[in-house]
Design brief:
The complex is a heterodimer. Chain A is an alpha+beta fold. In chain A, 47% of the residues lie in helices and 16% in strands. The model of chain A has no long low-confidence stretch (mean pLDDT 89). Chain B has helices at 2-14, 70-88, 123-138, 143-159, 170-177, 190-197, 205-214, 224-241, 245-270, 278-298, 309-333, 335-344, and strands spanning 18-19, 33-39, 47-53, 60-63, 94-100, 106-112, 118-120, 167-169, 178-179, 348-356, 360-362, 368-370, 373-377, 388-391, 394-401, 405-412, 429-432. Chain B has a six-stranded antiparallel beta sheet with strand order 14-15-16-13-10-17, with no helix packed on it. Chain B has a five-stranded mixed beta sheet with strand order 4-3-2-7-8, with helices on both faces. The chains are: A alpha+beta, B alpha+beta. The interface between A and B is large, with 63 and 64 residues.
Chain lengths: 308, 473
């Protein structure tokens, strides 16, 4: 599993299906084929740009590390274990684990200031006039937090790995690298919630399943459809499921939150129109709220027909 | 709000979007400048293909055979910049306007009679044009490019202001006027959104939306698969043989969908009668355009980076004022928008059952003041006594309420006999709104600026010492 998928768990809190898929380590390609998802992929141009920028950034890393973290290093040194001391390292295909889950990372760049190690991340989205797209930075920070957590698990002393990372981005419209320090401590705290569940993950799906069998197994794990779902690998399946069953959550978290235990759109509307007797206090409250909206909407539609 | 939830539920059940507005709340120009396009993946400053123009039937298509080659890129952007200059040059005519100037003297000012309008398919394209404008302003090759950058900068500055119609995104237009039964993030996909609002005959929204997803994206990021299978060979051919026909064909084919969808969105909103305050809001855009043009002509235009201190405070203040004004104006213009406030109980709809025009209240000095009373039959009103409501310019205060009646006292707007004709007759249906006359909030500076406007006083990183010259590439 790559850091992005683990970080993605933060998008859909409370969804057991997403957690089960990630805990069980199902191959993304197998999953995509089973649920009928479009083949994700990167544009060749984006890949080229990423590659070029990573090369350029690597060459400038000693300079950036000196400027932002005060570390003097001549060049990036290849390593095959967690280093210590001062210097700049590149660790290819590191064997990292998070809880019981294997973490797949192509390469981890690390800079050591003598006592602590700081991960370095290069991304190719632009930093314009000193500001990068906040959504993208937030995403990167969540993924970095996953890497930091895994590195801490690999280290003898968790404190050896710092949560202050160095983020390297291209400056303005060119490919000139600029660095900035990014502390992912808040993201690490949020991640702890996910990690607890990852480790305790009770719903497991056999990684050997494929096609319809896999879909069947997915269907047996309860899901929670919500606004964060489009980033999930199972999204097409859950979406179709919600459409078939007429779930109110299909229309987003606001609707799901207001409808509470009334899961079906038809039931919620029946409450709104007085076609269904509220069963308990909660349904009563939902019925009051929605019937008021229904009345306001019906009357407003009549009024809107009149010339103003 | 509960009305949004109800509308989304209705849409889910009907498998079709439901109207959320019965008036057009954005100004629609007679001659908008519509633009759809793709840029090279990850590189907003490298356009691949752009389709633009003011007439649906005659779009211009611009392709760049080697988007990463600066000369070719500038040549293409130059063509775009010249067309933009031609388009905005239509908006130079001014009319004299008498305004109250400083010291309450009357000033005659000149305001452009109309302003340009940029229409794009989605937020991402609008954001891309902001970046493109920023990029063009950093260039020092051709003054036409810089002027185009300045105009795009003006559009960008208006884009974030609530109520401005200088930049319209088709997705925002549709999402303002219709409510769908899909995730709010899915509403950002123009094809899907349109499938909900206007599904093809015989199809429900699910099927139509799923079909829309299969079509080429509206940009500005292209489909990775298309990049690999179509764009790359076409670009290679254009580069090696100088033959851009294949590239043009490919680009026209994928951009056509977004182009048509954007125009369809404009058409759908144009079917609604315009909201009463739309022209007033557009006037603010026209003034802004007038000032911008003056600055461009005088060569004094500047675009700052991040706002801080007083400018940031003023900007936040303007955003807040505009948000409040827009909510109020939309609700007063449109019963379907007012329904949101009825649903939350902040507004009241009902029938006048009784009037007492002779009622008087005693003022603090003991004199009798004429304060007519009205009784309204309504349902489920639950606000406390003392709540203020408005009927146009007439202000009313709730005195008491029961399950199905509300007793209201007129406190302003109609407290003299000549103005009693403003009060509703018995049996009249009325909607009392929580909005009075337009409020003006003075932007006096507080003693201490609120935290969002305060400059960040972090220790400057050593990175500030970087040479400032290497913008661009």
């Amino acid at each position: 599993m790559d850091p992005r998928r683990i970080a993605g768990l933060l998008d859909a809190p409370g969804c057991r299906r997403r957690l089960a898929v990630d805990v069980s380590g199902i191959e993304p390609a197998v999953l995509a084929a089973a649920v009928g998802a479009a083949e994700g992929g990167q544009s060749p141009y984006a890949r080229e740009r990423d590659g070029t920028f990573a090369q350029l950034a690597l060459a400038r890393l000693p300079e950036l590390a000196a400027r932002h973290l005060g570390v003097r290093a001549e060049a990036v040194v290849e390593t095959d274990e967690l280093p210590s001391g001062a210097g700049l390292w590149s660790w290819r295909a590191p064997k990292l684990r998070l809880g019981d889950t294997d973490l797949t990372v192509d390469r981890v760049l690390l800079v050591g200031d003598g006592t602590r190690l700081h991960p370095i991340e290069t991304r190719s989205y632009a930093c314009l006039d000193g500001q990068a797209d906040p959504t993208k930075v937030a995403g990167t920070a969540r993924e970095l937090a996953v890497t930091v957590a895994a590195l801490r698990q690999a280290a003898d002393e968790p404190d050896q790995v710092s949560s202050a990372c160095l983020l390297v981005l291209p400056r303005n419209f060119g490919l000139n690298p600029v660095g900035t320090t990014l502390d992912v401590a808040p993201q690490l705290r949020r991640l702890r919630w996910v990690l607890d569940r990852l480790n305790a993950g009770t719903d497991r799906i056999s990684a050997a399943l494929e096609g319809p069998e896999l879909v069947g197994a997915l269907g047996r794990v309860p899901a929670r459809f919500g606004d964060g779902c489009p980033s999930c690998a199972v999204y097409p399946y859950c979406r179709g499921d919600a459409e078939q069953s007429g779930a109110a959550a299909r229309a987003g978290a606001t609707v799901a939150n207001l409808c509470g235990p009334v899961g079906l759109a038809a039931d919620a509307l029946a409450l709104a129109h007085g076609d269904r007797v509220p069963g308990d206090e909660t349904e009563h409250a939902i019925a009051t709220e929605l019937s008021r909206a229904a009345l306001a909407y019906t009357q407003a539609k009549t009024r809107s027909q009149e010339p103003s | 709000m509960s009305l949004d939830v109800y509308q989304r539920l209705l849409a889910l059940q009907r498998r079709r979007a439901v109207p959320a507005a019965s008036r057009a709340h954005r100004h629609l120009s007679q001659r908008p400048w519509v633009l759809v396009g793709y840029h090279l993946a990850g590189e907003p400053s490298a356009p691949v293909a752009i389709r633009y123009g003011s007439f649906r039937g005659q779009p211009k298509l611009l392709v760049v055979a080697e988007p990463r080659d600066r000369d070719q890129r500038f040549a293409a952007l130059g063509a775009l910049a010249r067309d933009l200059a031609t388009y905005v040059s239509r908006y130079t005519e001014t009319e004299p306007v008498v305004r109250v100037g400083n010291g309450r003297d009357l000033d005659v000012d000149h305001c452009c009679t109309d302003a340009p309008q940029l229409v794009v398919p989605n937020e991402a394209t609008a954001h891309w044009l902001d970046l493109l404008g920023q990029y063009l302003r950093t260039l020092d090759v051709d003054p036409v490019l810089q002027t185009a950058g300045a105009h795009l900068g003006w559009f960008a500055s208006r884009r974030h202001l609530p109520g401005s119609s200088a930049v319209l995104t088709a997705t925002d237009l549709l999402a303002t006027h219709w409510r769908t039964g899909q995730l709010p993030t899915e509403d950002g996909h123009l094809g899907r959104l349109l499938a909900w609002v206007e599904p093809p005959a015989g199809q429900d929204a699910w099927t139509a939306a799923a079909a829309a997803e299969q079509r080429p994206p509206a940009g500005p990021a292209s489909d990775p698969e298309w990049d690999l299978m179509t764009l790359r060979p076409a670009l290679e051919r254009a580069k090696q043989l100088g033959d851009v026909r294949r590239l043009k064909l490919a680009a026209a084919e994928v951009l056509d969908q977004a182009w048509r969808d954007t125009w369809t969105a404009l058409d759908l909103v144009a079917l609604l009668p315009p909201g009463g305050h739309t022209a007033q809001r557009w006037e603010s855009d026209r003034w802004s355009w007038t000032r911008h043009r003056e600055r461009v002509t005088a060569g004094t235009i500047r675009f700052g980076g991040r706002l801080s201190d007083v400018p940031a405070f003023r900007f936040l203040h303007e955003l807040e004022t505009r948000t409040v004004a827009l909510e109020r104006q939309m609700a007063l213009d449109d019963p379907l928008v007012m329904a949101r406030w009825l649903a939350t109980g902040e507004a009241v709809a009902g029938t006048v059952i009784k009037r007492d025009l002779e009622h008087t209240a005693t003022s603090a000095r003991g004199s009798a003041l004429l304060r007519p009373l009205l009784w309204l039959r309504t349902q489920g009103f639950d606000r406390p006594a003392g709540t203020e409501l408005w009927l146009g310019k007439v202000g009313l205060t709730v005195r008491a309420s029961t399950v199905d009646t509300v007793e209201l006292m007129v406190t302003s707007g109609a407290v003299t006999r000549p103005k009693f004709n403003l009060l509703p007759e018995c049996d009249a249906e009325v909607v009392l709104a929580p909005f009075g006359p337009q409020q003006y909030f003075p932007d006096n500076l507080p003693e201490e600026l609120p935290w969002p406007a305060r400059p960040t006083r972090l220790a400057a990183p050593a990175g500030d010492a970087e040479p400032a010259g290497d913008t661009g590439e």
